[in-house]
Amino acid sequence: MLADPSVPRSISVDGLANYLALAHAVAPQTIYEGIHKLRPGHYLQARDGRVQVHEYWDVGAEPQLDAGRQVPVTEYPRRLRALLDDSVQRRMVADVPVGAFLSGGVDSSAIVALMRRHTSGAGEDVSLGFDVGGAYDELDDARRVARHLGTDHHELRVGADELVKAVRTLVYHYDEQQIVVGALVTTA
Description:
Layout: H1 13-22, E1 42-47, E2 50-55, E3 65-66, E4 69-70, H2 76-91, E5 99-101, H3 106-117, E6 124-130, H4 139-149, E7 152-158, H5 160-174, H6 178-187
Parallel strand pairs: 5-6, 6-7
Antiparallel strand pairs: 1-2, 3-4
C-alpha cells in the first residue's frame, strides 16, 4: 500500500499507542491513519466500486454447545487440549522435516510437547538468544523444556549488529511498523 504515493503516511495516535504498549496495532487500527486491518473472523468484499466488510465467524458470548447441550466448564481443559493436539498433528504432515520455534514460554512449550507426541524421532526445535542477555534471552528456559521433552534442540545467538539488521528486514516484511521501528532502529 505504501508504494502508492497517494496513500497518506500520517501516524495514527491510537495505533502508535497500541504498538508501544502491545507491540502491534489492535485491529482495525494500524500504525497509519486511514489504513485499517480486517478484524479476525472477517473478510473484505470489493465489488462495483464498493467495499464491504463481512463477519464470517465469531466465538460468541454464549456457552459453547455440543449437539444442543451446554458443555460443562470442567470439560473445557480437556477439549482445549484435544483441539490443540489436533491442530498440531495436522501441521505435522509434510514432505520435509518439521520443527518449531521454542522460546521456553507456555505457548511454544505446549506446541513442542504436542509435536513430540506425533513424531517417531526426537522432533526438532530452534531457539533464539541475544548476546546482550537479560530478560530478553530465554535460552535457559528453552533448554530446560527441550531437555525435558528430549527434542533435537538448536540455538542461535544474535549480536547487536545482527539484531539491528534483522529488525530492519522484519520491518520491511511487516510493513505496518516501518516508520516506528525504523525510527527506533536508526536512533538506537
